[in-house]
Amino acid sequence: MITLRAEKIMEINIQDLMIPGDKVAHVQLGNNLEHALLVLTRTGYTAIPVLDSSYKLHGLVGTNMIIDAIMGLERIEAERLEEIKVSEVMNLDIPRLKITDSAAKGLEIVVDHPFVCVVSEEGYFEGIFTRREILKQLDRHVKRLNKG
Predict the structure, then answer these.
(1) How confident is the model at residue 120 (pLDDT cuts 50, 70, 90)?
(2) SS3 at position 37
(3) Could you state, in order of their start, the residue ranges of all structural domains in the chain?
(4) What pTM was estimated for this model as a whole?
(5) N or C: which end of the chain has fewer CB within 10 A?
(6) What's the mean per-residue pLDDT of the chain?
(7) Cα gap 16→141, rounded to integer Å
(8) What angle do the packed helices 33-43 and 63-70 form, to 10 degrees?
(9) Residues 6+ away with beta carbon under 8 Å from 147
């Protein structure tokens, strides 16, 4: 059985492990669903942050939300993609991490979510904390332990 010294990993804060906001695809509140779907498709993501013009985080929009919004009774109403705004379909109830939070808090959240948005104390979007980043850190830690 492997015994890990979790203190080392858990001392790291979110800022050290997050992907900075300028490298994260996002949309703005006023964008239409056509634009959001284009961004999602081009990046290969299933959900992206929704920001206002001052880069405050408001929620997430995902492919499923967009498809649900244009699903008619008998067909997909693709023409509605231009009419509907991201703000009308986005999810407002999302987990968030503050940039000063610990990796331990982030780990608890990414158990249920592939990524979590990171915000400043004022609510400005700083980046995302991903399950992948914490697993990479854990992998490095395990490899160091195995060498020593």
Answers:
(1) very high
(2) helix
(3) 6-146
(4) 0.87
(5) N
(6) 92
(7) 15
(8) 140
(9) none
Q: Which residues of 81-92 are buried (b: 16+ CB within 10 A; e: fewer)?
A: beebebbebbee
CA dihedral 80, 86, 91, 95 (to 10 degrees): 150
Tell which phi-psi region holds residue 123, choosing left (phi > 0), alpha (psi between -120 and 50) or beta. left
Give CA–CA dist 49/57, Å, rounded: 7
The token pair at 43 is 């990046």
Fold of 6-146: CBS-domain (3.10.580)
Residue type, 26: H
* Nearby residues of 120 by Cβ (< 8 Å), 6 or more positions away: 98, 99, 126
